[in-house]
Amino acid sequence: MNWYKKANINSKMPKRELGKTSYKVSILSMGGQGALEDGTKDDSISIIKRAYDLGINYFDTSPIYGDSEKHYGKVLKGIRKNVFLATKTDDRTRDGSLRLLERSLKRLNTDYIDLWQIHHLDDSDDISSICSKKGSLQALIEMKEQKVVKYLGFTGHEIPDVLIKMSKQHLFDTVLCPVNAADKNMNKSFISDVLPVAKDQNMGIIGMKVFSQGYMFHPKGIKTAWELISYALSQDVSTIIVGHNTIEELEENVAIAKSFYQLLNKQQEEIEEKTKDYLKRACFFRKEYGGYNSKKKIGYK
User: Fold this and answer.
1) Do 231 and 181 form a contact (C-beta atoms < 8 A)?
2) Domain range for 222
3) Is there a domain that residue 3 lies in?
4) Which of 49, 130, 134, 278 has the maximal Cβ count within 10 Å?
């Protein structure tokens, strides 16, 4: 496979429209996990600054990602108007979500959020709670009406059908879901089932789990970041979120994104084929494999 032509890391970052928001986001976005969740403050701040300098303008975080919001707050004060800032609520109630938002605004050192998302939808019971009169959806709607947040979205990684059901509850602006090279080998696929529904509603589509926390790599399967990033960006997405542990990782992934070209169907199928023997590893976060919170040491199976 000799498809990769590496770009100059200082070349221009490609952008795409984020659905009906019409905001143009970098095709590679900065994840709020990796070093930002588990690393030191200095490392996290250095990575955020370097990401911005390299053309990344979409920054993702969540109240449950350690000190990630605080790290962003240290960096973004002087450049806030130039970036698209997304955070989340994992509380299912209106009041609990409003308290989380107040905390997020303080930690992020800002007075508004570009995208506020309902975090990790796991099952239909979640939707019932969220959409009730005292559910978190009410908080999202109120804060948008008050212009504290600009856009509304939701996220999920366990069951495609749950995200499809949620998309019918409100005119959301975005969906954040898994988009990786193993996905189409599953019985239900986020790429095949969720993305077309979101596209029909003109939602911004944000891909995650591109690397599946590194479990997409396998001695007898996927071996390069180029395959995974190029595959994900060849799907119908606005951007992909990747967490970074080091400046070196960030710069490698930025170079890949800046060299991106649309893969042919045959090329995509070749990459998908490589993952068929280790789906439980590559899609460990799926409900059929126990879900994200029940993850155990996966190994190479």
Assistant:
1) yes
2) 16-294
3) no
4) 130
Structural domain contains residue 6 = no
The burial class, CB within 10 Å (0-12 / 13-18 / 19+), for 294 is exposed
Token couple for 227: 């395959």
Q: 121 and 156 in contact (C-beta within 8 Å)?
A: yes
Q: Per the domain annotation, does 7 fall within a domain?
A: no
Which of the residue ranges 7-16, 87-96, 187-196, 237-246 would you say has the lowest mean pLDDT? 7-16
| DSSP result, 220-247 | TSB--HHHHHHHHHTSS-SEEEE--SSH
Cα four-point dihedral sign 146, 148, 152, 158? negative
Q: Which residue matches tokens 């109630």?
A: 93
Domain of residue 258, CATH code: 3.20.20.100
Number of domains present in the structure of the chain: 1
pLDDT in tens, 100-153: 999 999 999 999 999 999 999 988 889 999 999 999 999 999 999 999 999 999
Other residues' Cβ atoms within 10 Å of the Cβ of residue 185:
15
Average pLDDT score over residue span 14-19: 98
pLDDT given for residue 299 in this prediction? 57
What would the two tokens of residue 170 be? 């409100």
Q: Is residue 301 part of a domain?
A: no
Q: At what angle do helices 136-145 and 94-108 cross, to 10 degrees?
A: 50
Cα–Cα distance measured from residue 238 to residue 208, given in angstroms and rounded to the nearest whole number: 11
Q: Hey, what are 211's tokens?
A: 């690397």
- pLDDT for 1 equals 46
> Cβ(206)–Cβ(236) under 8 Å?
no
Single out the residue of 238, 244, 239, 203 nearest to residue 225, CA to CA.
244
Instruction: Count other Cβ atoms within 10 Å, centred on residue 39.
Output: 20
Q: In Å, what is the CA distance from 175 to each residue of 66, 121, 150?
A: 23, 11, 15
